[in-house]
Write a structure and sequence with these properties.
With 779 residues, this protein is of the alpha/beta class. The protein contains 28 helices and 22 strands. The strands form four sheets. Strands 6-7-4-3-2-5-8 form a seven-stranded mixed sheet. Strands 12-13-11-14-15-10-16 form a seven-stranded parallel sheet, sandwiched between helices. Strand 3 and strand 4 (179-184) form a beta hairpin. Magnesium ion is lined by residues 387-388, 481, 635.
């Protein structure tokens, strides 16, 4: 093998950093790099060892290793001269590990790593959570004892008092107008710092006690006053234990001083001018060291600096989605004829006829599939609107052309259920369905083989479908059921497995337009806005926790009529908080309220075999009451179960509660859902009232958005929501629409970002959101 130059190796490392999956070199990136380093000689054993076990490292560990090697290579003028990287003096730069910054030793680096800060760049983009207004420096005489106040003066007294808990340092500071006392609990080291005569600034909550102003919770700065910590507006960062705010601010300051100028400007100047937003570097500095923005603006994330950075992130993301979409549109796939005898036969075999909404959506999908282009469609429909059938019909259209379908659902229980419900009717049509589960059984290995040999047409499964190395012979369609449990990323991953399959995403969660744009910017949307006829709406009642006995008396009566019930709890086991857990509730029901019935427990910690078994017996009617966690929330369909109790209902989001009660009232009997809630606050009362008043998922979503804001509604950090530094699609959604408009404007003018003024955009997209473009190069 010819020797690679350092530049080539660096480029390979750069490539590998994007995916961290050891695929940047045929035959394994790790073997390549290890071989190269060995030839160059004298590199630390540690690296070689870590490269050897590269596949076993976590993504973070891989990343850290690559960064270390990369920066060492960059810093050494001639590789292979046997210079240990430690002995070199590094000028810090953006891509280097934080330890190259002044004042960052191994201990501090570890703490920073815990905050996911690995490089100098990470540090610059580690933005404050909020700000504190320290106010201006006040004469001690005019302290008011309200909020955080700041004074400046000289240490005039310094004594250590013995107390029961050990010695306690007390320091008196005077500024000529008065004196304050600092009480230094557990801060003995201050004795060395706050010596008599030292000038000090102190910021804290002062209170008047024993004839003087006093504070025990304060921050201080001594000596030559650097003022960064004592600007009026102080950034407050998310903290990790053992990392003092002062320290973090100092390190960030050092990063700003040494590396801010390396941050590339990304937005086209014309755009910045039009929107009147500052340059990126200026914005970053402003967020860490506010100088022009007002406290209120900063608090509300509405300063010009915020706007600039948030907009940039949204814009990059929006652009990447649009580029991907355009790229996708250029792919040709075999069209599925509009006429589908297989789908027709299946529809005829159903014991009911499709609703108008189902027919319409099926037709929209049929047209997508027939177009010869890749379909990307989101089907939205309230719980119980019959999305599963729509999915199956679509699957059949694809199967009919000889291609395979992956049907991905969020829980094993649900996979199980879809499987048992459709296997036979589909087998009758000659369609072979497989169920892929976790674990490593012989059965499963056989299934994997069958999938590869195209002996299976439709594979139903959970994450296992993406995580395991499932090789489809010819994957034509990916169905993702109950989308809110998955994200864009996972969808993307699954699709890497085939050439370019169609994607059909189904969700019961109504999504505001703007949010849908961000999360699934590249999808068309269909809505199943009608429920099958003959459904009786579920009656929802709310009881305060104190009236549990009433609730269960009612349940007992209903069970005696031969119904089945779910009892849903927020927790599995006893915890510190006083919330209902499956185990306790189960015991209580068995002993006290429902002793005459057959009760079983089901939750996520059981093995899939156990879950399967319990669900099976429940749907056969061998179990009367199922005490469960929210594992039953999605998709489960047991028509005879028409009663539900939700313990500590206030713990769940409205949308989630609506999903939960969607499990009952699926048969001909009216469902009864009883919410047991700690009705302490006005807000809880209101939220429960919405649920008892309406059964319309879209209205519930709207109300919940209004009462709680989008973040909580969706359960803030969901899987797959793209990681932004600062932007938050939930909190900043008004800016999203703006970004999409701007992205559209740019893409229309310059579809692949080839113009010089767009080149930085393109580079940044490749770096940050490159994985959304996996189907082709940008341009
Ligand atoms: P979801 O939209 O919540 O996924 P499902 O697809 O699970 O809803 O359907 C809920 C129930 O309604 C299932 O038992 C299904 O068999 C039934 N169903 C679906 N479509 C119809 C229809 N057109 N008429 C009557 N029942 C239907
Ligand atoms: Mg469903």
């Amino acid at each position: 093998m010819a020797r690679c130059s350092k530049e080539v190796v660096l480029r390979v490392i750069e490539q590998e950093k994007k995916k961290l999956d050891n695929t940047s070199v045929f035959g394994g990136f790790n073997r390549f790099l290890k071989g190269w380093l060995q030839k160059e000689g004298h590199h630390p054993e540690e690296w070689l060892g870590q490269l050897e076990g590269y596949e076993d490292l976590s993504r973070e560990e891989r990343r850290r290793l690559l960064l270390t090697i990369e920066s060492a290579l960059r810093a050494s003028p001639a590789p292979g001269k046997g210079v240990s990287p430690k002995s070199r003096k590094f000028v810090p730069s953006l891509a280097q590990p934080v330890r190259y910054l002044k004042g960052v030793g191994p201990a501090l680096e570890k703490k920073l790593n815990r905050l996911e800060i690995f490089t100098v760049e990470d540090l610059l983009f580690f933005f404050p959570r909020t700000y504190r207004d320290r106010g201006t420096i006040k004469p001690i005489r005019s302290l008011q004892g309200v909020g955080i106040e700041t004074i400046q003066g000289q240490v005039v007294q310094h004594k250590i008092e013995p107390t029961r808990r050990g010695p306690l340092l007390k320091v008196v500071v005077s500024d000529g107008t008065g004196e304050i006392r600092l009480v230094c609990f557990n801060r003995g080291y201050l004795a060395q710092v706050l010596k008599k005569g030292t000038w000090v600034r102190v910021s804290g909550n002062f209170r008047y006690a024993f004839g003087a102003w006093e504070t025990a919770t304060f921050e201080y700065e001594v000596g030559k006053l650097r003022t960064t910590d004592f600007e009026r507006l102080v950034p407050v960062y998310p903290l990790t234990e053992g990392l003092p705010p002062k320290k973090l601010r100092a390190v960030i300051l050092s990063a700003l001083e040494t590396c801010l100028h390396e941050v590339p400007e990304v937005l086209p100047p014309a755009l910045r001018e039009r929107l009147q937003i500052p340059a990126k570097r200026e914005a970053i500095r402003e967020l860490h060291l506010p100088s022009t923005a007002s406290f209120e603006e900063l608090q509300a994330r509405r300063s010009p600096a915020h706007l600039a950075l948030i907009l940039e992130e949204f814009l990059l993301f929006a652009l990447s989605l649009k580029i991907r979409r355009r790229t996708l549109e250029t792919f040709q796939v075999p069209p599925c004829p509009l006429e589908s005898p297989l789908a027709e036969r299946f529809i005829r075999s159903l014991p009911f006829s499709l609703t108008e909404a189902q027919k319409r959506v099926c037709l929209e999908i049929a047209h997508d599939l027939a177009s010869g282009r890749v379909m990307n469609r989101l089907v939205q429909g309230d719980v119980g609107s019959g999305k599963t059938i729509v999915a199956v019909i679509s699957a059949l259209r694809v199967v009919e052309t000889g291609r395979q379908v992956a049907f991905m659902v969020p829980t094993e229980i649900l996979a199980e259920q879809h499987y048992s419900r459709f296997r036979e009717p589909l087998a009758a049509l000659g369609v072979r369905v497989g169920l892929l589960k976790g674990g490593n059984t012989k059965e499963k290995r056989q299934l994997l083989e069958a999938i590869q040999k195209k002996e299976v047409d439709i594979v139903i499964g959970t994450h296992a479908l993406i995580e395991e190395k499932v090789a489809f012979a010819d994957l034509g369609l990916v169905i993702v059921d109950e989308q809110h449990r998955f994200g864009v990323l996972q969808r993307a991953k699954l699709r890497e497995k085939a050439t370019v399959p169609h994607t059909l995403v189904m969700t019961a969660t109504p999504i505001p337009r703007t949010l849908a744009l961000t999360l699934y910017g590249d999808l068309d949307v269909s809505v199943v806005d009608e429920k099958p006829a003959g459904r009786k709406p579920t009656r929802t009642l709310c009881f305060p926790l104190e009236e549990r006995f009433k609730a269960y008396n009612r349940v007992r009566k209903l069970l005696r009529e031969g119904r089945q019930a779910y009892v849903v709890c927020p927790a599995i086991e006893e915890s510190e908080e006083e919330i209902a857990n499956v185990q306790e509730v189960f015991e209580e029901l068995q002993k006290k309220w429902l002793s005459e019935f057959r009760i079983e427990v089901i939750h996520g910690k059981l093995s899939s075999r156990e879950k399967e078994d319990i669900m099976h017996r429940f749907s056969r009617g061998d179990v009367d009451v199922l005490v469960a966690t929210s594992v039953i929330e999605v998709g489960i369909d047991v028509p005879r179960a028409s009663v539900m109790v939700v313990e500590n209902a206030e713990r769940f989001g409205l949308a989630q509660l609506h999903q939960l009660r969607g499990r009952i009232g699926r048969g001909s009997e009216e469902g009864v859902c009883i919410l047991l809630a700690a009705l302490s606050g006005e807000n809880v009362r209101k939220r429960m009232a919405i649920l008892t008043a309406t059964d319309d998922g879209f209205r519930i979503a709207e109300e919940d958005l209004r009462l709680r804001g989008p973040g909580e509604f969706y359960g803030v950090r969901q899987h797959g929501v793209p990681e932004f530094h600062l932007a938050d699609p939930f909190a900043d959604w008004p800016l999203l629409e703006r970004a999409h408009q701007e992205a559209e404007r740019i893409i229309t003018e310059d579809p692949f970002l080839e113009r010089p003024e767009h080149r930085p955009l393109r580079q940044e997209i490749e770096r940050r959101f490159g994985r959304y473009l996996e189907f082709g190069e940008v341009g």
